[in-house]
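Thread: Newbie trying to understand structure tokens

Hi all, I'm a second-year student working on a class project, and my supervisor (Dr. K.) asked me to get a predicted structure for one chain before our next meeting. I've only ever worked with sequences, so writing a 3D structure as a token string is new to me. If someone could post the tokens and maybe explain what I'm looking at, I'd be very grateful. Here's the chain:
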Amino acid sequence: MTAPLYTSVDVENVVVGSTMPQVSQPVKTLRVAGKDVQIISDLSFTNKIDDVSSSVAYYGAALPGTLVTAAEWRIMKKTVVTTVTTYAWANGSSDFNCIWNNRATYTYS
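---
Reply by user tm_fold:
Sure, no problem. This is what the structure looks like when written as tokens:
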């Protein structure tokens, strides 16, 4: 039997946000590839995907109605090199403080 790809921990009623409005929502933390990724459940996001090529894609999330020119996006970059796929956050942070239209200009880590 193989180990699961992720583990899940539920945390109730955590106040979350950075540049995004402060909201009290249940938060789920998934452990993916040794890193914790927080998912806010019960809160809908506008999502965007930009498949630049077979080796690069950008994933963005923001509150509904957020302009693509507003610094209120969380952006992740997927990079594929041979058999290794890497996911990294814009400016090394999962905060909602990036501009979707500037996704290609950020440093990812």
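A couple of things are worth pointing out once you decode it. Confidence is low (pLDDT under 50) at residues 1-24. The radius of gyration is 15 Å. Feel free to ask follow-ups in this thread.
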